[in-house]
């Protein structure tokens, strides 16, 4: 089929289109293979050169070859053409090559629409505030390009002004749609494998170094807002996975025991409870980080026998969850015997010195055994460091008697090992400890660098009791945070170590802004939408109600925009109006002024044809002529207006 | 087809625009999405599905902003036409086979410029115009003039896709335009001057040789015959006087229908006459035109030429 010749594209519009293509493809360079980025860059450069030298565009067959080559290259690079990354790569290639055959207005339209689509794909990789700002500027550029393509040559400032005006007018529609458009929680179909690559957080197992490597990251793990006062820092133990199975190197969560389903753990809260709402970053695991120990859980979650909160699905998006927790509690006082038995299990071999030490304590009551271990940590030269030496197969022996240098996971696992060897049921708990209140918005910020591991022992009559051996070694870690506990030179992320006050404040502001952004922009899901709508007085809104409200509000906005852009009615000159009204009155009395008749000529004609109106009309005409053409200002305007009122009443027509 | 035509007539208010200027009010402006606009909507729908599937909140924001942009673009496209005042002017006569240009003055009373206005008669080339803020522009809309006679170009479609090309707003204008189309001239040698001695011509009268007195000027008199001296002597507002001459019949040329080859098509004969008129005018000869039922006395000058060509153009048409 032959292409219908469209409206030819102006040469002057080409640089705009190339800029639009560049602006939409450049941010993708970060996650595209370098050869592809280079190809995209050179294609755009080539097109710019063709434009600059006014050269003809390359032949169709050459382009077809080029496109085929690129598609093959992408298929080779990603091993598939389906999925997110290859899809984005294909779009980028089309965006770079389409300008090479762009010679009419329809091609330009295709480029712009591709650009809008590419803008969307940026959000696969980042939905941060800078990404949002980039969205605004790029969308302005794309819109300006559309204006240039359809509006012909005009000053850049005029184009920019119109593009901004259009976007400003589109904003209310965006807000209304954003708030009210019935949200569907995705995904609609199975997501490709690569949808949740790079998520960080605690993992399902703990070996030496796993938590210390997590603390290298200043990334935020979650933020919490307390309904009342924020508890003491030393009380902020955020419970993550619980490990009670040790193989000599790695701690793991024990797979759920077979047999009868275990009863729900029994929690007896004492004293004050704290209500708080957390915004958890996605970590692709099921546990929700609650303050030890939660008494009320968010919907769609349950309390595991080991007291951590588990969601139904792995946490793949940033989520907002509310808890109530009690800091003073007794948990599982009546723990099943099987569980206690398993909490004593140790690998059969290795670590003879540690076992011997524990055997010495076996006669003591459990609480004193724990105390003895903590005393050992406290009084012997143990060091708290992110860079412990490597340990051999007798890891506990080496750590406790030789190296004595370790991070929280070393202390927790050594402590639990000692307890188990001495006959006290014990387990390792991983999670986060502490956090920092952001004074800007009052949210407690907990980072990956706050990752921590501690121990729990089971005491008859008290249930599971938390013991933090790290506190014995480095009390500052618990009371002031990791930056205070670690000496200078330890590889901590910069954000954690900020000393300068203004920098800290800047960081706090930035993170508070991000928090609002996350909650209001990124975390605006169906549930949040219901909350917001009910707060706006639209209780239990179903999609019909929302659509109706949406339609009404959009209609109103459209009306406002229409009125806004409507030309302001030209203010009619009062002189003109007074004279026109006078002439209209005269016309009613049978003396219509012709369009071409000047005031004085009209007055003369009136004098000839209607002597009864002659005097008044000549006065009015003289006033009007003076006001219009004279130099006395508006002095006689009142007189002209008076003439209208002095007209004799209209004669009744005889029937 | 008949009912559809009736609907169209009602919807689009088809019919001539008697009032001048033509003001584009809401009722006269129609707007639909362009093909690009429809594709835009489809792209937005696809993007929305993607954004829902990948849970992209910012993607939702982008899509809703673009949807808002679409709505706003509709308003702006409409306003690009709204309130324009169009005044038709007279079209210059053309020869058959050329393009007639119908001038239209466009007045913009608003402080925003009107851009990318496209005017076209149906199935005729498009001409684009811009009107500055609170200003006026003139556009000449072409229409092919294949045949001699009076050309009625029909209605104008005024279209605008500005600013984003997502919507097409249009209005039909039907001013009383007409244009005289002269026959396409065929250049053949002029008839011999001798043939001026026609049977019923009054020989010797109205020549150029001998001065025969003064008479009031008529529009068709050449300016070089005005008796400036005589005019200067009289101070009152009298019509100009021209010198009348007599004799010199040799310079008097009669372009006669009967002189054209009788075996040719009548249109062709008119074309030959048109060619003669142009040639006679170029030679600055005095020429008269004789058509069946129509006679123009010999004279010279652009006005005479136009009158003669118009007589040819309208030959055989009912006079209006």
From TrEMBL, chain A:
Any Pfam family hit: TgpA_N
TM region positions: 33-52, 108-125, 131-150, 162-181, 546-566
Domain Transglutaminase-like: from-to ranges: 400-471
Keyword field: Membrane, Transmembrane, Transmembrane helix
PANTHER family in the cross-refs: PROTEIN-GLUTAMINE GAMMA-GLUTAMYLTRANSFERASE
Protein name according to UniProt: Transglutaminase domain protein
Organism: Accumulibacter regalis
From TrEMBL, chain B:
Transmembrane regions listed in the UniProt entry: 37-56, 62-82
Keyword terms: Membrane, Transmembrane, Transmembrane helix
Name recorded for this polypeptide: Uncharacterized protein
């Amino acid at each position: 089929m032959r292409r219908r010749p469209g409206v030819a594209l102006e040469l002057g519009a080409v640089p705009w289109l190339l800029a639009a293509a560049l602006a939409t493809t450049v941010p993708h360079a970060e996650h595209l293979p370098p050869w592809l980025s280079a190809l995209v860059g050179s294609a755009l450069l080539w097109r710019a050169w063709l434009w600059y030298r006014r050269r003809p565009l390359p032949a169709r067959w050459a382009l077809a070859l080029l496109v085929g080559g690129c598609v093959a290259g992408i298929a080779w690079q990603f091993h598939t053409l389906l999925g997110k990354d290859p899809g984005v790569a294909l779009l980028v290639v089309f965006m770079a090559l389409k300008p090479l055959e762009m010679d009419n207005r329809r091609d330009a339209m295709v480029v712009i629409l591709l650009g809008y689509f590419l803008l969307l794909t940026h959000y696969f990789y980042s939905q941060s505030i800078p990404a949002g700002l980039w969205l605004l500027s790029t969308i302005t550029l794309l819109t300006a390009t559309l204006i240039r393509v359809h509006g012909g040559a005009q000053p850049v400032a005029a184009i920019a002004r119109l593009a901004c005006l259009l976007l400003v007018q589109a904003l209310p529609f965006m807000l209304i749609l954003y708030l009210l458009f019935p949200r569907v929680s995705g995904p609609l179909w199975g997501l490709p494998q690569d949808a949740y690559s790079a998520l960080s957080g605690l993992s399902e197992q703990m070996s030496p170094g796993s938590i210390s490597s997590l603390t290298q990251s200043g990334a935020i793990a979650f933020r919490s807002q307390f309904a009342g006062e924020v508890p003491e820092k030393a009380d902020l133990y955020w419970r993550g996975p619980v490990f009670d199975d040790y193989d000599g190197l790695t701690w793991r969560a024990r797979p759920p025991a077979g047999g009868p389903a275990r009863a729900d753990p029994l929690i007896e809260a004492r004293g004050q409870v704290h209500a708080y709402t957390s915004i958890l970053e996605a970590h692709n695991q099921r546990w929700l980080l609650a303050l030890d120990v939660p008494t009320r859980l968010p919907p769609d979650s349950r309390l595991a026998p080991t007291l951590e909160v588990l969601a139904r699905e792995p946490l793949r998006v940033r989520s907002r969850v509310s808890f109530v927790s009690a800091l003073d509690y007794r948990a599982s006082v009546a723990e099943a015997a099987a569980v206690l038995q398993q909490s004593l299990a140790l690998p059969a071999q290795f670590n003879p010195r540690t076992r011997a030490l524990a055997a010495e304590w076996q006669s003591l009551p459990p609480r004193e055994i724990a105390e003895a271990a903590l005393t050992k940590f406290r009084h012997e030269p143990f060091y708290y460091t992110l860079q412990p030496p490597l340990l051999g197969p007798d890891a506990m022996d080496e750590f406790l008697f030789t190296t004595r240098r370790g991070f929280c996971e070393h202390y927790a696992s050594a402590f639990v090992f000692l307890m188990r060897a001495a006959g006290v049921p014990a387990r390792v708990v991983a999670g986060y400890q502490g956090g920092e209140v952001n004074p800007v918005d009052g949210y407690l910020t907990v980072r990956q660098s706050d990752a921590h591991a501690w121990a729990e022992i089971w005491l008859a009559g008290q249930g599971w009791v938390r013991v933090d051996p790290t506190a014995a070694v480095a009390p500052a870690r618990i009371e002031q945070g990791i930056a205070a506990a670690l000496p200078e030179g330890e590889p901590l992320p910069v954000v954690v170590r900020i000393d300068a006050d203004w920098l800290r404040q800047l960081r706090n502001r930035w993170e508070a802004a991000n928090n609002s952004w996350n909650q209001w922009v990124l975390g605006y899901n169906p549930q949040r939408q219901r909350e917001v709508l009910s707060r706006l007085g639209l209780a239990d809104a179903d999609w019909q109600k929302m659509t109706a409200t949406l339609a009404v509000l959009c209609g109103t906005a459209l009306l406002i925009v229409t009125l806004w852009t409507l030309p302001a009615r030209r203010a009619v000159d009062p002189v003109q109006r007074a004279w026109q009204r006078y002439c209209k009155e005269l016309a009613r009395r049978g003396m219509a002024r012709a369009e071409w008749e000047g005031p004085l000529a009209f007055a003369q004609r009136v004098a000839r044809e209607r002597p009864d109106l002659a005097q008044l009309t000549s006065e009015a005409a003289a006033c009007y002529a003076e006001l219009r053409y004279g130099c006395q200002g508006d002095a006689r305007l009142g007189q002209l207006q008076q003439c209208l009122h002095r007209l004799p009443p209209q004669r009744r027509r005889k029937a | 087809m008949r009912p559809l035509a009736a609907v169209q007539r009602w919807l689009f208010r088809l019919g001539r625009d008697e009032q001048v200027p033509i003001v584009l009010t809401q009722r006269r402006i129609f707007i639909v999405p362009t093909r690009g606009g429809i594709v835009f909507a489809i792209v937005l729908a696809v993007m929305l599905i993607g954004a829902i599937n990948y849970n992209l909140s910012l993607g939702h924001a982008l899509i809703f902003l673009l949807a808002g942009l679409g709505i706003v673009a509709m308003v702006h496209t409409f306003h690009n036409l709204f309130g324009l005042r169009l005044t038709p002017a007279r079209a210059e006569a053309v020869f058959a086979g050329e393009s007639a240009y119908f001038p239209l003055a466009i007045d913009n009373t608003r402080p925003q410029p009107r851009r990318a206005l496209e005017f076209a008669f149906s199935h005729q080339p498009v001409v684009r115009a811009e009107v500055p803020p609170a200003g006026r522009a003139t556009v000449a809309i072409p229409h092919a003039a294949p045949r001699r006679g009076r050309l009625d170009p029909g209605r104008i479609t005024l279209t605008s896709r500005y600013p984003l090309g997502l919507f097409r707003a249009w209005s039909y204008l039907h001013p009383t335009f007409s244009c005289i189309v002269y026959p396409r001239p065929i250049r053949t040698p002029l008839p011999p001057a001798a043939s001026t001695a026609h049977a019923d011509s009054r020989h010797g009268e109205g020549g150029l040789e001998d001065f025969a007195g003064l008479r009031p000027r008529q529009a068709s008199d050449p300016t070089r015959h005005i008796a400036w001296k005589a005019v200067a002597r009289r101070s009152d507002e009298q019509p100009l006087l021209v010198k009348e001459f007599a004799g010199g019949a040799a310079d008097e040329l009669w372009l006669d229908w009967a002189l054209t080859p009788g075996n040719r098509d009548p249109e062709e004969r008119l074309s030959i006459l048109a060619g003669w008129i142009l040639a006679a005018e170029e030679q600055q000869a005095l020429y008269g035109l004789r058509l069946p039922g129509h006679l123009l006395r010999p004279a010279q000058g652009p006005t005479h030429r136009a009158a003669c060509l118009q007589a040819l153009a309208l030959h055989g048409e009912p006079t209006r």
